[in-house]
Amino acid sequence: MLRNAIGMLAFVMVATFVGCDGKRERKSENLVTAPAEGDTDEHSVHFYTYTEHSDYPDAILEMYSPLGNQNFSSNKVPFEFNVKNYPFGEKGMGFQLKMVLNGNDPIGYNMPIFQKELNQGTYRAVAYLVDEEGLALKEFGNYVDRDFRVMDSQPFPENDEPFLILNLPLNEQEYGTGDEVIVDFMVLDGELKNDGYMVRIKLNGYEFTTDEIEPIRVDQLPAGEYKLEVSLIKADGSELEGVFTSSQKRIKVN
User: Fold this and answer.
1) Which contiguous run of DSSP H or E holds residue 195?
2) Which of 5, 95, 210, 213 has its CA 20 to 30 A from that of 128?
3) Are 97 and 113 in contact (CB under 8 A)?
4) So where are the chain's domains?
């Protein structure tokens, strides 16, 4: 069984610029050492970030349907959005509007109006725009969230705590040896630093925490299957108790 401890954590601050070879330099790098799955030897894994610059800081995503806490009498739910200051449907960017329902994998849409058939239940929709790399835009106005109900289900319990969604990776996503794994998440209804929260990322025995919402990139993962856990935690390390305060995915490095 893997140890859930960090053998070594090194923090390196690196000047951020684009080198003459066109490669992006890492802004910060954290070295985490733990045994790999099925191996007693320890391996070092790199968690790092780049300085991210949004090309669309003024992009606005508005949600006209569903309304807040709206109840739908049938399982056919209409979704309607309005996009401003963003090249929606242009440049061949593919799916530029993504939506997460109840913490599941995001689904991409290349149209602002569509309909989904949903089972009876209570839902939280988080919709957001993405950049050319497929990363979620995280400036205020780039995303919107909405709770709604289908066929008279009970609303979510009231809770003032923030919640998160995971844009990347997708469940069961596979990577080649040496590929960079991007953990791209969003925190809503709260701020990490100002409100005293952090995000903890676990990949089997490798663990890393951050108070930034920049995508966390991971490389040097040994081949194997991984359980990814991304959780909102308090300053004392305890997890939040509200809905959608953590997300779990399975990934594989071949």
Assistant:
1) helix 192-195
2) 210
3) no
4) 9-51+160-253, 60-150
